[in-house]
Write a structure and sequence with these properties.
Arrestin_domain-protein; Immunoglobulin-like; mainly beta; Arrestin_C-like; 0% helix; 397 residues; four-stranded antiparallel beta sheet; Arrestin-like_N; Arrestin C-terminal-like domain-containing protein
Length: 397
Amino acid sequence: MGKLTKFEVRYDHPQGVYQAGEVVQGRVDMVLSEPMSMRSITVHCLAKGKVHWSRRSGKHTTHYRSEEVYINVNMLLFGEANGESITHPEGTHSYPFQIRLAPTLPSSYEGVFGYVRYFCKATIDRPWKFDHDAKTAFTVLSNLDLNLEQLDLRNPMQGQQTEQVSCCCCVSGDIKALFKINKRGFVPGEAVKIWADVSNNSNTEVLGTRVALKQYIEFYGKCSNFFSGSSMQSKCVSDILVTLQRPAIPAGQTDTWGNVALRIPAIPPSRLVGCNIINIAYVVKFYVSVNYGNDIKLACDITVGTVPLYEAYSSQPAQLPSMPIMQQPNAPPPPMAMAMAPSAPPACLPPPAYEECVKGRVTISDENDSKYTRGDMQWAPVYPVYQFPVEVPEDTV
């Protein structure tokens, strides 16, 4: 195995997760079976947001890119940078390091067209030989306290829609859908409580109903073509994170979703505050698949935070008060509801667990890494997931 039998970057937090504003403490562990000649051992802490996508038109491909650098710090752990070669003794060695995170840093995020990524990379600089590298990513979480949001996220929402059904050029009745959620602010681990009624007042079958948690990501980048100008362009993609469904509704029948729970998985907070090139939004959507008509689609925008609403820890069952109607296109805005002052926080909020992002691991090697770079290159950020007491039984779906 040669002289270097171990070389890795480790963090004091076992899952490598830190809040913006905290101090990252880590170490570079190294085991040498015999002395090694080197100039230095350094660790490079880099954090950046990066976006890239392309559009093809005929034979021409246009690339859109953007980048933000949040941290770019090099620390000398042994020897002298660009100095004379010295001999490092054999044995087991550990070199500690630390770096303070700015309080305004965005949360970690990994997506198909961009990311916000934090990592530390240790390097053994060897004269006239290939360097040794070891890289380990870590998660940063930007605090999004739902209790401090300008919009009162405690308020429930509802929407309704009626769709005419026609068969053989004749109207065969209509389908009415009413969709409600208990509030608009949630954290991972919490359940969105869903109420829905679908009345099939037609003589044809409704194919089924379903509810989905959708994530919308908007990436911003500039065109690499000089003649296209330097204005920022955007690309929006969506992904279904969780879905629940119910079977078909026969003609003349009604189906009810009664307090069904849709659990928020481990996902990054809304908006990705602190990042100017990626934006995140979440929507709970309700679908009714209509035979011989347009499908019904109702949507409620929600905010996913890192600190739950104080009332989420109340021991009282959730009540469903009268709900504001979701604003429909071309409809006047609903009357403004009176904002409720946040209740006092409980003496002790149960600490969350940290789970890997529900979308799984990605490859984090980049153009500065080689096939010899050590470390786990398949990685996913972790997010806080709260454990809530079950207040009411979940309906069967």
